[in-house]
Here is the input.
Amino acid sequence: MKKLENEKELVRKAIAIGTSYAEKRGAAKFEASDSSNEKMEFIYRLLVKDKLIQPMPELQVSQQTIRHRLALWAQSLEKKTDT
Here is the structure.
């Protein structure tokens, strides 16, 4: 898994977009005290459930792989808005 150049920024963007998506969809209400790891896992699982991203084999699911997958998702959203 090759680390993206601006992965930290993309992860922050993915969390912001993902929390907004989950709240608008009525799937979750995030609190300020929720950790970013909890948010990332919830967003990942919601996006997989809604078939917006490909699921990983359950043995590969970890905070690092979720972080990378959400960064890729945010990057793909950026590319869609650039065109």
